[in-house]
Each structure stands twice: as structure tokens, then as C-alpha cells.
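Write out the 3D structure for:
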Amino acid sequence: MAQVGKLLVIGGIIIIIFGLILWLGGNKLNWIGHLPGDIRIEKENLRFYFPITTMIIISIVLSLILWLIRKLF
């Protein structure tokens, strides 16, 4: 049970750090969702948005962070 508590604390710290980054640098992160490869279709009655490239980059970054956490603990 101690491992679960440790993971919850680490997860909470990561969420707080991510929240602070978004709060303090939110206006500088406008490129997120507007990368080449993100699908955006805007018509008169239709707005479709699918950020493929952004999701791949976020997935790679999160995978690296989780890999580092596993290596450290």
C-alpha cells in the first residue's frame, strides 16, 4: 500500500507542475494544437479539429517522463 500512496503523491506533484506551467506560460503555448499535421476543417456549419501531431508529441513527452520516474524509483 505504501507504493500506491507514493505514486499518488508523485502524480499529484506532476499535475501541480503541469498546472503551473500552463498558468504561468499559457500565452506562450499557442503553438500547441497548431502544428503541421494537425487536421483542421472549418466550413460554414462544420468545425472539425483533430490534433494528430500534437497528440503524438504529448504522448512521447509523457512516455519519457514516466520512463524517467520508473528509472529513478
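Residues 18 and 24 are 10 Å apart (CA to CA).
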